[in-house]
Amino acid sequence: MNTREEASKAISSFLDSDERVMLLTGTHQHEKHVLALTVVLTEFTAPATVLFRANSVPNAEQFLSRVVDLKSPPKTGIPLGIAGGYKLFVDSIRPTSWKASPSRVDVGVTYPIESLNADEGDECYHDLVSRKCKKIILVSCTDSRDFFWTEHLEPKRVVFDAEEENPEQHKGVLQSIEKMTYRNDISGLPEYAQSTPPQFLVQLHCDNCRSGRWAKLNEHYPGKITLRDADYGVYVAKCLKCGYEARDNYNWYGQHTD
Ligand SMILES: [Zn+2]
Protein backbone atom coordinates (compact mmCIF):
# COMPACT_ATOMS: atom_id res chain seq x y z
CA MET A 1 0.00 0.00 0.00
CA ASN A 2 3.06 2.29 0.12
CA THR A 3 2.34 3.49 3.66
CA ARG A 4 4.26 5.98 5.77
CA GLU A 5 5.82 3.14 7.74
CA GLU A 6 6.98 1.32 4.62
CA ALA A 7 8.33 4.47 2.99
CA SER A 8 10.13 5.47 6.17
CA LYS A 9 11.78 2.05 6.42
CA ALA A 10 12.79 2.19 2.76
CA ILE A 11 14.41 5.61 3.20
CA SER A 12 16.31 4.35 6.28
CA SER A 13 17.61 1.31 4.46
CA PHE A 14 18.65 3.51 1.51
CA LEU A 15 20.70 5.70 3.89
CA ASP A 16 22.43 2.58 5.21
CA SER A 17 23.09 1.12 1.77
CA ASP A 18 25.74 1.71 -0.91
CA GLU A 19 23.10 3.18 -3.22
CA ARG A 20 23.51 6.82 -4.17
CA VAL A 21 20.24 7.95 -5.74
CA MET A 22 16.66 7.64 -4.54
CA LEU A 23 13.48 8.63 -6.35
CA LEU A 24 10.59 9.27 -3.95
CA THR A 25 7.18 9.56 -5.64
CA GLY A 26 3.56 8.85 -4.71
CA THR A 27 0.23 10.52 -4.03
CA HIS A 28 1.01 11.93 -0.58
CA GLN A 29 1.62 15.45 -1.88
CA HIS A 30 3.35 17.85 0.54
CA GLU A 31 4.28 14.93 2.85
CA LYS A 32 7.05 13.13 0.97
CA HIS A 33 9.77 15.76 1.40
CA VAL A 34 8.80 16.09 5.07
CA LEU A 35 9.27 12.37 5.59
CA ALA A 36 12.54 12.24 3.62
CA LEU A 37 14.10 15.18 5.49
CA THR A 38 12.88 13.93 8.86
CA VAL A 39 14.46 10.52 8.32
CA VAL A 40 17.70 12.07 7.00
CA LEU A 41 17.97 14.53 9.91
CA THR A 42 17.63 11.78 12.47
CA GLU A 43 19.16 8.69 10.91
CA PHE A 44 21.98 9.73 8.58
CA THR A 45 25.25 9.45 10.50
CA ALA A 46 26.11 12.87 11.98
CA PRO A 47 27.90 15.22 11.75
CA ALA A 48 26.51 15.76 8.29
CA THR A 49 25.88 18.51 5.79
CA VAL A 50 22.45 18.33 4.19
CA LEU A 51 21.40 20.50 1.23
CA PHE A 52 17.72 21.10 0.55
CA ARG A 53 17.27 22.20 -3.07
CA ALA A 54 13.77 23.61 -3.59
CA ASN A 55 12.16 25.02 -6.73
CA SER A 56 12.84 28.47 -5.27
CA VAL A 57 14.49 29.78 -2.11
CA PRO A 58 11.27 31.51 -0.87
CA ASN A 59 9.41 28.23 -1.36
CA ALA A 60 12.07 26.46 0.68
CA GLU A 61 10.90 28.36 3.74
CA GLN A 62 7.38 27.06 3.31
CA PHE A 63 8.55 23.51 2.56
CA LEU A 64 10.90 23.44 5.56
CA SER A 65 8.48 24.98 8.04
CA ARG A 66 6.96 21.54 8.51
CA VAL A 67 10.34 19.95 9.19
CA VAL A 68 12.35 22.38 11.32
CA ASP A 69 11.66 25.32 13.60
CA LEU A 70 12.59 28.32 11.42
CA LYS A 71 13.30 31.57 13.26
CA SER A 72 13.79 33.56 10.05
CA PRO A 73 13.59 32.84 6.30
CA PRO A 74 16.45 30.55 5.20
CA LYS A 75 19.18 32.07 3.03
CA THR A 76 21.64 30.36 0.71
CA GLY A 77 25.09 29.75 2.18
CA ILE A 78 23.94 30.10 5.81
CA PRO A 79 23.37 26.76 7.51
CA LEU A 80 20.48 26.08 9.83
CA GLY A 81 21.81 24.23 12.85
CA ILE A 82 19.77 21.15 13.58
CA ALA A 83 19.98 19.18 16.81
CA GLY A 84 22.01 16.04 16.50
CA GLY A 85 24.94 17.51 14.55
CA TYR A 86 23.36 18.40 11.23
CA LYS A 87 23.93 21.50 9.14
CA LEU A 88 21.03 22.17 6.80
CA PHE A 89 21.72 24.40 3.79
CA VAL A 90 19.16 25.69 1.31
CA ASP A 91 19.39 26.62 -2.35
CA SER A 92 17.16 26.22 -5.40
CA ILE A 93 17.06 24.32 -8.67
CA ARG A 94 18.38 27.48 -10.38
CA PRO A 95 22.18 27.35 -10.87
CA THR A 96 22.48 31.04 -9.91
CA SER A 97 21.65 30.01 -6.32
CA TRP A 98 24.42 27.38 -6.14
CA LYS A 99 27.45 29.64 -5.62
CA ALA A 100 26.97 30.04 -1.88
CA SER A 101 26.29 26.34 -1.27
CA PRO A 102 28.96 24.22 0.46
CA SER A 103 31.52 22.48 -1.76
CA ARG A 104 30.91 19.24 0.12
CA VAL A 105 27.47 17.91 0.81
CA ASP A 106 26.60 14.56 2.40
CA VAL A 107 22.93 14.42 1.49
CA GLY A 108 21.08 16.43 -1.18
CA VAL A 109 17.30 16.54 -1.24
CA THR A 110 15.74 18.07 -4.38
CA TYR A 111 12.03 19.00 -4.28
CA PRO A 112 9.70 19.06 -6.15
CA ILE A 113 11.36 17.44 -9.14
CA GLU A 114 8.39 17.95 -11.47
CA SER A 115 9.63 21.57 -11.62
CA LEU A 116 12.68 20.32 -13.52
CA ASN A 117 12.83 19.34 -17.17
CA ALA A 118 15.24 16.59 -18.21
CA ASP A 119 18.20 18.90 -18.85
CA GLU A 120 17.69 20.88 -15.63
CA GLY A 121 17.35 17.66 -13.62
CA ASP A 122 20.53 16.28 -15.12
CA GLU A 123 22.37 19.53 -14.35
CA CYS A 124 21.17 19.47 -10.71
CA TYR A 125 22.29 15.86 -10.36
CA HIS A 126 25.77 16.59 -11.73
CA ASP A 127 26.14 19.60 -9.46
CA LEU A 128 25.40 17.42 -6.41
CA VAL A 129 27.87 14.81 -7.65
CA SER A 130 30.53 17.55 -7.96
CA ARG A 131 29.89 18.32 -4.27
CA LYS A 132 30.73 14.68 -3.45
CA CYS A 133 27.15 14.09 -2.38
CA LYS A 134 26.77 10.57 -0.95
CA LYS A 135 23.00 10.42 -1.02
CA ILE A 136 20.91 12.17 -3.66
CA ILE A 137 17.19 12.11 -2.91
CA LEU A 138 14.83 13.28 -5.66
CA VAL A 139 11.32 13.94 -4.39
CA SER A 140 8.16 14.76 -6.34
CA CYS A 141 5.11 16.63 -5.06
CA THR A 142 2.76 15.57 -7.87
CA ASP A 143 3.86 12.87 -10.30
CA SER A 144 2.94 15.02 -13.27
CA ARG A 145 5.97 13.91 -15.29
CA ASP A 146 7.58 10.52 -15.89
CA PHE A 147 11.06 11.51 -14.61
CA PHE A 148 12.57 9.45 -17.44
CA TRP A 149 15.86 11.34 -17.13
CA THR A 150 16.48 9.58 -13.79
CA GLU A 151 16.32 6.08 -15.26
CA HIS A 152 20.00 5.77 -16.16
CA LEU A 153 20.86 6.69 -12.54
CA GLU A 154 19.13 3.46 -11.49
CA PRO A 155 17.58 5.09 -8.42
CA LYS A 156 16.14 3.21 -5.51
CA ARG A 157 12.42 3.80 -6.02
CA VAL A 158 10.29 4.54 -3.00
CA VAL A 159 6.58 5.32 -3.19
CA PHE A 160 4.67 7.09 -0.43
CA ASP A 161 0.94 7.19 -1.13
CA ALA A 162 -1.89 8.90 0.75
CA GLU A 163 -4.06 5.80 0.36
CA GLU A 164 -3.89 4.73 4.00
CA GLU A 165 -4.09 8.16 5.67
CA ASN A 166 -6.33 9.97 3.18
CA PRO A 167 -7.95 7.66 0.59
CA GLU A 168 -9.90 10.56 -0.99
CA GLN A 169 -6.70 12.47 -1.68
CA HIS A 170 -5.08 9.34 -3.08
CA LYS A 171 -7.95 8.84 -5.52
CA GLY A 172 -8.14 12.51 -6.45
CA VAL A 173 -4.43 12.80 -7.18
CA LEU A 174 -4.44 9.69 -9.36
CA GLN A 175 -7.42 11.05 -11.32
CA SER A 176 -5.83 14.44 -11.84
CA ILE A 177 -2.58 12.85 -13.08
CA GLU A 178 -4.54 10.77 -15.56
CA LYS A 179 -6.00 13.95 -17.07
CA MET A 180 -2.55 15.47 -17.62
CA THR A 181 -2.14 14.58 -21.27
CA TYR A 182 1.00 16.65 -21.76
CA ARG A 183 3.08 14.99 -19.08
CA ASN A 184 6.44 15.19 -20.82
CA ASP A 185 5.60 17.72 -23.44
CA ILE A 186 8.25 19.76 -25.21
CA SER A 187 6.95 23.03 -26.59
CA GLY A 188 7.45 24.09 -30.19
CA LEU A 189 8.08 20.66 -31.72
CA PRO A 190 7.91 20.55 -35.52
CA GLU A 191 5.28 18.30 -37.02
CA TYR A 192 7.71 15.56 -38.06
CA ALA A 193 8.72 15.02 -34.41
CA GLN A 194 5.31 15.21 -32.78
CA SER A 195 4.38 11.52 -32.98
CA THR A 196 7.58 10.38 -31.23
CA PRO A 197 7.25 10.00 -27.45
CA PRO A 198 9.08 12.99 -25.88
CA GLN A 199 11.23 10.79 -23.65
CA PHE A 200 13.09 9.61 -26.78
CA LEU A 201 13.67 13.01 -28.39
CA VAL A 202 16.96 14.84 -28.84
CA GLN A 203 18.08 17.72 -31.04
CA LEU A 204 21.20 17.45 -33.18
CA HIS A 205 22.80 18.65 -36.35
CA CYS A 206 22.00 16.04 -38.99
CA ASP A 207 24.96 15.59 -41.34
CA ASN A 208 22.67 14.22 -44.02
CA CYS A 209 20.01 16.95 -43.85
CA ARG A 210 22.75 19.52 -43.12
CA SER A 211 20.40 21.14 -40.66
CA GLY A 212 19.34 21.12 -37.03
CA ARG A 213 16.86 18.27 -36.54
CA TRP A 214 14.91 16.36 -33.94
CA ALA A 215 16.01 12.74 -33.70
CA LYS A 216 14.83 9.61 -31.87
CA LEU A 217 17.18 8.11 -29.30
CA ASN A 218 17.68 4.37 -28.78
CA GLU A 219 17.19 4.92 -25.01
CA HIS A 220 15.22 7.30 -22.83
CA TYR A 221 16.76 10.77 -22.88
CA PRO A 222 19.12 11.07 -19.88
CA GLY A 223 19.83 14.83 -19.89
CA LYS A 224 22.32 16.87 -21.85
CA ILE A 225 25.40 16.49 -19.62
CA THR A 226 25.01 12.72 -19.31
CA LEU A 227 24.50 12.46 -23.04
CA ARG A 228 27.58 14.54 -23.82
CA ASP A 229 29.77 12.51 -21.46
CA ALA A 230 28.53 9.05 -22.49
CA ASP A 231 30.87 6.58 -24.20
CA TYR A 232 30.74 6.35 -27.96
CA GLY A 233 27.97 4.06 -29.21
CA VAL A 234 25.87 3.95 -26.06
CA TYR A 235 23.46 6.43 -27.60
CA VAL A 236 22.31 6.33 -31.20
CA ALA A 237 19.92 8.94 -32.58
CA LYS A 238 17.93 8.54 -35.76
CA CYS A 239 17.03 11.74 -37.61
CA LEU A 240 13.24 11.91 -37.74
CA LYS A 241 13.36 13.72 -41.07
CA CYS A 242 15.73 11.52 -43.11
CA GLY A 243 16.45 8.44 -40.99
CA TYR A 244 20.22 9.04 -40.75
CA GLU A 245 21.70 7.43 -37.59
CA ALA A 246 24.04 9.68 -35.65
CA ARG A 247 26.51 8.49 -33.00
CA ASP A 248 28.40 11.70 -32.18
CA ASN A 249 26.59 12.16 -28.86
CA TYR A 250 29.16 14.71 -27.58
CA ASN A 251 27.79 17.08 -30.26
CA TRP A 252 24.09 16.87 -29.59
CA TYR A 253 22.11 19.91 -28.49
CA GLY A 254 19.86 18.31 -25.86
CA GLN A 255 16.12 18.58 -25.41
CA HIS A 256 15.67 22.08 -24.13
CA THR A 257 18.00 24.43 -25.99
CA ASP A 258 16.82 28.00 -26.00
ZN1 LIG B 1 18.42 14.12 -41.30
The gist of it:
The chain contains 6 helices and 11 strands. The chain is α/β, with parallel strands linked by helices and about 260 residues long.
What would your notes on this structure say?
- The model has no long low-confidence stretch (mean pLDDT 95).
- The chain has six helices and eleven strands.
- Strands 3-4-2-5-6-1-7 form a seven-stranded mixed sheet, sandwiched between helices.
- Helix 1 (4-16) crosses helix 2 (32-43).
- With 258 residues, the chain is an alpha/beta fold.
- The chain is globular and about 60 Å long.
- It folds into two domains: 4-179, Rossmann fold; 191-251, no CATH class.
- Helices cover 25% and strands 21% of the residues.
- Bound molecules: zinc ion.
- Zinc ion binds next to loops.
List the helices and strands and how they pair.
Layout: H1 4-16, E1 21-25, H2 32-43, E2 48-54, H3 57-64, E3 80-82, E4 86-92, E5 107-111, H4 118-130, E6 135-139, E7 156-159, H5 167-179, E8 201-206, E9 211-217, H6 224-229, E10 237-239, E11 245-246
Parallel strand pairs: 1-6, 1-7, 2-4, 2-5, 5-6
Antiparallel strand pairs: 3-4, 8-9, 9-10, 10-11
Order of adjacent strands in the largest pleated sheet: 3-4-2-5-6-1-7
The number of E-state strands comes to 11
Query: How many domain regions?
Result: 2
Helix-strand category: alpha/beta
CATH architecture of the largest domain: 3-Layer(aba) Sandwich
What's the CATH class of the largest domain, please? Alpha Beta
Mean pLDDT: 95
Ligands, deduplicated: zinc ion
N→C terminal distance = 42 Å
What is Rg?
20 Å
Order of helices and strands: HEHEHEEEHEEHEEHEE
Which shape, going by the Cα principal axes? globular
Fraction of residues in β-strands:
15-25%
CATH homolog superfamily of the largest domain: P-loop containing nucleotide triphosphate hydrolases
